[in-house]
Design a protein that fits this description.
The structure holds two protein chains of two kinds. By secondary structure, chain A is of the alpha+beta class. Chain A has a single domain, classed as OB fold (Dihydrolipoamide Acetyltransferase, E2P) (Beta Barrel). Helices cover 19% and strands 32% of the residues of chain A. Chain A contains four helices and nine strands, in the order E-E-E-H-E-E-E-E-E-H-E-H-H. Chain A has a six-stranded antiparallel β-sheet. The longest helix of chain A has 10 residues. Chain A starts with 8 loop residues before the first strand and ends with a helix. Chain B is an alpha/beta fold. Chain B is 35% helix and 14% strand. In chain B, the strands form four sheets. A seven-stranded mixed β-sheet of chain B has the order 2-8-7-6-5-3-4, with helices on both faces. In chain B, strands 11-12-15-14 form a four-stranded antiparallel β-sheet. In chain B, strands 1-13 form a two-stranded parallel ribbon. The radius of gyration of chain B is 25 Å and the shape is globular. Chain B starts with 7 loop residues before the first helix and ends with a helix. Classes of the chains: A alpha+beta, B alpha/beta. Chains A and B meet through loops of A and loops of B.
């Protein structure tokens, strides 16, 4: 059973979203996603300053056998990509909700509401439907 | 690996087992409107004897002329051992095998090839080969757009001193992927791209600069200044190089203060015969930093569970079977046979042998141009050093001169009129280590006669 912290928001495509005190949001992939991918060997994060649309692919997580896109859960401007992941991609495996965050972005006006993010309870249902 | 086709009896047994009368019946569900009819204009089959005869007759039409044409494909001596070894059953395959790891010898050959190319170019990592120099250049441009994340323009600067065919191939392969190729004029006195001419791009968003060394005219570009200018402006450098020349010239990995970012080229000079234009192979090398953006197969060396050395395809998440539409390229194999020949050629020649070949080619080319430019009406187009080919300007039309030479069994060079009409009557002429002093004299005498005939006409 995957770890799904109650204080985060989620997407069906297995990203999590944390609202920070400065109004920006932090984004990563869930414990379920990192487990399904296996040991990550490479993570490509977006550059600060890039404007992204909701559902736009903006990061890549690569394991030995697969490479997957990570989609922006909501529209906005990237304020940071996690610099630690270039040399330590395995951080996403070991601490997916903490040090393994992928990017931070400043949501555009109304973007957070438009994103229709899932609660932890709803994301649990998504995982249950996928058999986790 | 043996390939054993089904016998007619096998096919009949299989059909009987599944209860189908004819193979065609298996395709019945495909609507007739979607089925391809037989191809029009394809001649009847020929047997091996007939094909052999046809090919010898065709080859006889070409004859065995004394060739002074280079322009991207170069006649070099190929030690007999190269193809004797390459065509051994263990090597004789055009492709990376499926279930690649079952063929450790093939993978080791590819690994050795990659190592040799990386050392020759002075780069950190090379792939298992590309189709040819032109497509490798196009793939390098596409790769640069992925690798240069600071640039948003997908704009590639292409000197007109880059091989005209490579320029066309790059545009054909990449124009529908949003790449914009902008041609840079060359200096008509020196036949190179002047670093000062790039100043007008200062401050503009440019993704990559392609530099061919030696360039299409055989001239040496100021690669250090061009590379440093590009890097100072956040522009990646794609080196297009002749592998033979790298035995003498500074490798792309050492250009400027940081080195080129991607090095590609035509591999044909490394043991592949001219054979009427192909098949050839391309090579590609880069920095480790950009390896995930590199197309093509890459073989790595590793240890198995018993701690023994083994070879494996690696970094496959770049490739089509994993990355699907977002793969770095649709290239999913390598030019296995030609790459094998090149690996054997390089191992037989060694660094000294390759350097001697390059030096002898350079010397022959200098002797040839010195002899020819003593003839009235013939002069060098550009000042400055050449590698093994040079542009000659004639004071009369090239076509009748080339025809007169051809009548005496000499291919006198490439007529540059279709590619560089601004030069006037111009020939791109090459001599490699294969040409003897007598060959050079035969060309000089024939050209002298041809020029006089053309003058009288």
């Amino acid at each position: 059973m995957s770890n799904v912290p109650a204080d985060l928001k989620y997407t069906k495509s297995h990203e999590w979203v944390r609202t920070l005190s400065d109004g920006t949001v932090e984004i990563g992939i869930t414990d379920h996603a990192q487990h399904a991918l296996g040991d990550l060997v490479f993570v490509e994060v977006p550059e600060a300053g890039r404007a992204v649309r909701q559902d736009e692919p903006c990061a890549v997580v690569e394991s030995v056998k697969a490479a997957s896109d990570v989609y922006a859960p909501l529209a906005g401007e990237i304020t940071a990509g996690n610099p630690r992941l270039a040399d330590a991609p395995e951080t996403v495996n070991s601490d997916p909700y903490g040090e393994g965050w992928l990017m931070r972005l400043r949501p555009g006006a109304g973007a957070l509401a438009a994103a229709e993010l899932l609660s932890a309870a709803d994301y649990h249902k998504v995982l249950a439907a996928e058999g986790d | 690996m043996a390939f054993i086709p089904h016998t007619e009896a096998d096919v009949a047994a299989m059909l009987a087992t599944i209860g189908v009368r004819r193979i065609e019946d298996l395709f019945e569900e495909i609507p007739a409107s979607l089925r391809a009819s037989s191809l029009a204009g394809v001649p009847e089959q020929l047997n091996e004897m007939q094909v052999g005869r046809l090919m010898s007759e065709r080859a006889a039409v070409d004859g065995t002329p004394l060739s002074f044409i280079g322009a991207g494909a170069y006649e070099h001596h190929i030690p007999a051992a190269v193809w004797a070894i390459t065509t051994r059953g263990e090597f004789y395959s055009a492709y990376t095998p499926y279930q690649a790891e079952a063929s450790q010898g093939t993978l080791q050959t590819i690994y050795e090839f990659q190592t040799m190319i990386a050392r020759l170019t002075g780069m950190e990592v090379a792939n298992a080969s590309m189709y040819d120099g032109g497509s490798a250049t196009a793939e390098a441009a596409l790769m640069a757009v992925r690798a240069n994340r600071k640039s948003k323009s997908a704009r590639i600067l292409v000197p007109t001193t880059l091989h005209p065919h490579y320029r066309r191939v790059a545009v054909a392969m990449a124009c529908n992927q949003g790449l914009e190729f902008e041609e840079l004029p060359y200096c008509t006195v020196e036949g190179v791209t002047l670093p000062a001419s790039l100043a007008r791009y200062d401050g503009e968003d440019v993704t990559a600069l392609i530099i061919q060394q030696p360039n299409f005219f055989g001239r040496l570009e100021d690669v250090d200044a061009l590379t440093d200018w590009a890097h100072a402006h956040g522009i990646l450098v794609i080196a297009v190089v002749n592998p033979t020349s790298l035995a003498l010239l500074k490798p792309p990995g050492e250009w400027g203060s940081e080195g080129a970012d991607i090095a590609v080229g035509e591999g044909q000079p490394l043991g592949v015969p001219l054979s009427s234009g192909g098949p050839y192979f391309g090579f590609m090398a880069t920095r480790m930093e950009y390896v995930r953006q590199m197309p093509g197969r890459i073989v790595g060396r590793t240890l198995d569970v018993a701690g023994q050395e083994g070879f494996t395809l690696t970094l496959q998440a770049r490739e089509q079977h994993i990355r699907r539409a977002k793969a770095t390229s649709n290239i999913c194999t390598n030019q296995g046979l030609l790459m094998t020949a090149a690996t054997i050629y390089m191992s037989l020649m060694g660094p000294q042998g390759l350097a001697r070949t390059a030096a002898a080619s350079h010397a022959r080319s200098r002797e040839l141009t010195a002899m020819l430019t003593r003839l009235p009406g013939v002069r060098l187009a550009f000042n400055g050093p050449h590698f093994h080919e040079a542009v000659l300007l004639l004071d009369r039309a090239t076509e009748p001169v080339l025809e007169a030479l051809a009548a005496r069994g000499i291919i006198g060079g490439l007529d540059l009129a279709p590619y560089y009409p601004e030069l006037g009557p111009a020939l791109l002429v090459c001599a490699t280590e294969t040409k003897t002093a007598a060959d050079l004299e035969r060309y000089r005498a024939a050209l002298s006669d041809a020029m006089q005939t053309a003058r009288a006409a």
